[in-house]
Amino acid sequence: MANNNNTKNLNVPNLRFPEFKGEWEKYKVSDILEFFPTNSLSWDQLEYGTDNIYNLHYGLIHKGLPTQIELVNCSLPNIKKEFIPKNYTLCKDGDVAFADASEDTNDVGKVVEFLSCENKNIVCGLHTIHGRDKKNLTINGFKGYAFSSEIFRCQIRCLSQGTKIYSISPKNFKDISIGVPAKEEQSKIAALLRLLDYRIEAQNKIIEKYESLIKGLNEKLLINKKEYTTYQLSDICEIRSGYSGAQLTGTQGLMVSRIETISKHCINLDKVGYVKPFNSSADFKLHIGDILFSNINSVQYIGNTAFVDREYNLYHGMNLLRLIPHKTVEPFYIFLLLNTITYKSYFQSICNKAISQASINQTELGKTVIHIPDLSYQKQICLVYNSLYNKKSLENLYLQVLKQQKSYLLRQMFI
Known about the structure:
Mean pLDDT: 85
Low-confidence stretches: 246-255, 257-280
Shape: elongated
Number of helices: 10
CATH architecture of the largest domain: Alpha-Beta Complex
Number of strands: 28
Distance between the termini: 16 Å
Helix content: 25-40%
CATH class of the largest domain: Alpha Beta
CATH superfamily of the largest domain: DNA methylase specificity domains
Radius of gyration: 26 Å
C-alpha cells in the first residue's frame, strides 16, 4: 500500500493501494442515500424460526451482527404474524441500516450493510435508519466500511444529541460528508476489509471452541465424586465484603467493581476503574489466590467469579473469598469449581431476587456445599486448566491484534 501522509492533496486517504491515483469525490451523505421509514416493533413482537418477514432491531446492530450481513451466517428475528405492518420497504443487497440511538456516543450511528439478503423479506425496525444508494455511486460491500470509518464516526459523534441517550436522525446526514473513490478502488478496499472480518470471525470461533471445551470439562472433572471430602464453603474460605465508599474519579488507586463479563482466569481489566486513595486497612487488599464473587447484581450475573492473579485494592460490589491457610486445598481449584454451570445455577436459585437486583448474603454463601478431591488430583486439574486458559488468553490477544488492525485501516483508508 502507498502511504499518502505527506501529500498536499487533501482528497485522498493516508493509506491507499498504489495502483490507484487521483482524488476521491466528496459528497454529503444525504446526496448519496435515500431514506425509508422503519417500524418500531419491540422484542416481544418478534420471534425466531418462522417464515415471516425478518426484522432488524437496533439492538442487534449494537451487539452480535457483523458490518456485512449475510443471512447465511447471521440470525435475524421474524415479526410475529399479528404485528406485521401494513406498509414497509424491503431491504435490498447494498442497503445500509444505522442504529439511531445509544447510551454511548461511540455507538450512535453504528452501521450494517446487507450484503446478501438471499431473496428473503427483511425490514428495518426499532431505532434504525434505512438507507439506499440512490445514485449508484457505490458498490455493494463498500458502504458498510465507509460508514464505519473513523472520519465518518467522528462526524456522527459531533452531531449526536441527548444526555443519557444519544440519537441522530436522517436530517443529520445532510451535515455529514463521505469520500467516494472509483468503483474499482471501492472493490479492493471492501475485499481487503472483508477478508479481515472473515479472519476475525474465525478467531472468535476458535475462542468459542476453547470456552466450550472448558465448560464440557468442568462438569466431567470437577463436579462431586463420592470419594471426595465434603466441606461447607465457610469451612475453608473467609468471606469478606468490599469497601462501599469509593467513588470513580479517574485518579490513583485501583478499584474492582461488579463482575459482569467474567474473565475466567483473572480479573477482567475492563471492569477496573480508578479511585481516590484513602486510608484503608489491609482488609481491602486483594491478594494473589483470592476469589471475587458477584453477590449483588442482576440475576444472570449472580455467582460470576474471578481469580485474582495480581494484587489490587478491593472496594465494592462483590464478596471476597480468601482461603483459610489449608494444606489440602488449592485456591484455583475452588475458583474452577464455583465457576461450573452446576454452581452458577445453584447460586441463582438461592439468591434473593429483588426487583432492582438480586443478592446472596454471606451466611447463605458460606453454607454452599463443595466436594474436594485429594491435593495431588487438584494440582493435576489446575495444571490442565491453566494450560487451557493460557492458550485461550493467547487467542484473545491475537483477536485484539486483528481488531486493532481493522481499526487502523478504518482510520487510514477513508476520507
